[in-house]
Amino acid sequence: MRAFVVLLLAIVFFGFSCKKNTEDTGLDFNEQLALDSAAIADYLTANNITDVMTDQTGYLMYVVHEEGDGVVPLVTDSVVVSYVGRLLATEEEFDSGDHSEFKVNGLITGWQIMLGLMHEGDSVTIYVPSGFAYGKTGSGDKIPANANLIFGMKLHKVFQ
Predict the structure, then answer these.
(1) How many angstroms separate the Cα of 69 from the Cα of each of 10, 15, 151?
(2) Total domain count, the chain
(3) What is the pLDDT of residue 26?
(4) How crowded is the C-beta side of 107, counted as CA atoms within 13 Å?
(5) Element (H or E) spanning 118, and its range?
(6) What is the dihedral angle through the alpha carbons of 79, 92, 135, 64, rounded to the nearest 10 degrees?
(7) Rounded to whole angstroms, how far apart are CA atoms 27 and 81?
(8) Residue 118 is part of a domain; what is its CATH number?
(9) Which residue in 122, 145, 133, 109 sits closest to 65, CA to CA?
(10) pTM of the prediction?
């Protein structure tokens, strides 16, 4: 009986001393990407959004509203854009900027991919899966973990 009690105490002690990973949702990148893609497709269908295009990965979806004919930025360039960012789930706006300047390689993956497809003067709406945005960590108080995002954006200028 004494051995049983010692074993039980050891199990309880070990269980309480293990550190748990609070950021792990149990899904790997591809599993989360599949969920995100389904949520974005459902959103597009529910809102009757047509003329949707996808990038070379097949996961970043976008609609072109206005076509420009200027320079296409490289990842090493800086750009001037106007944008509005919203959460897909609630459509709540979390950020915006008018003629804001950014270094392309400092932006989320979804923006880097999209900017590589845009010309100066283009205006688009992009639907960004969480893994191409802020992923499992989210960003600040406004963007939760695994949040899919919508950005309306216009590329004004490229500085090479």
Answers:
(1) 70, 62, 21
(2) 1
(3) 72
(4) 24
(5) none
(6) -50
(7) 34
(8) 3.10.50.40
(9) 122
(10) 0.83
- Is 21 within the bounds of a domain? no
For residue 145, is it within any domain? yes
Compare 112 and 20 and report the one with higher pLDDT: 112
* Buried b / exposed e along 67-78 (16+ C-beta atoms within 10 A): ebeebebeeebe
Question: Position 90: which residue type?
Answer: T
CA distances from 140 to 60, 81, 131 (A): 23, 22, 16
Q: How many residues does the chain have?
A: 160
* Residue span of the structural domain in which 109 resides: 28-159
Mean pLDDT score of the chain, rounded to an integer? 87
Token digits of residue 105: 């390689």
Judge whether 61 lies within some domain. Answer: yes
In a domain, 64, yes or no: yes
Contact 62, 127 (CB under 8 A): yes
